[in-house]
């Protein structure tokens, strides 16, 4: 079905994290890649053997691993809501799924 950080062809992926500000940049049609997470903010878990091969997180990797619910990883996508996360123009923070409700939380200014 749907996988985290997997965007629709019509959508554009967020830019990489800014090394200085540690915040995701604004959307850009030129940069359609999943944004990398700051090593200081959270740590990745290994890929599930059923979904993909185990792979450690690395700034060099183009695809970030799944994140632990206890850290900062986006939860699994809801089958009914398969769409990219929305960004706040002011806060510029990634929206995370709610572990309990399993729904998108919009970060509004």
From TrEMBL:
Q: Where is this region: Disordered?
A: 1-70
Indicate what this protein is called per its UniProt record: Uncharacterized protein
Please report the organism this UniProt entry assigns to the protein. Capitella teleta (Polychaete worm)
């Amino acid at each position: 079905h749907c996988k985290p950080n997997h965007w629709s062809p019509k959508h554009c992926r967020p830019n990489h994290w800014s090394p200085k500000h540690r915040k995701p940049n604004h959307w850009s049609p030129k940069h359609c890649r999943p944004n990398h997470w700051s090593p200081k903010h959270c740590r990745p878990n290994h890929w599930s053997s059923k979904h993909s091969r185990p792979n450690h997180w690395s700034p060099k990797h183009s695809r970030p691993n799944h994140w632990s619910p206890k850290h900062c990883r986006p939860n699994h996508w809801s089958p009914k809501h398969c769409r990219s996360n929305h960004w706040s123009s002011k806060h510029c923070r990634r929206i995370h799924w709610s572990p309990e409700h399993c729904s998108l939380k919009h970060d509004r200014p």
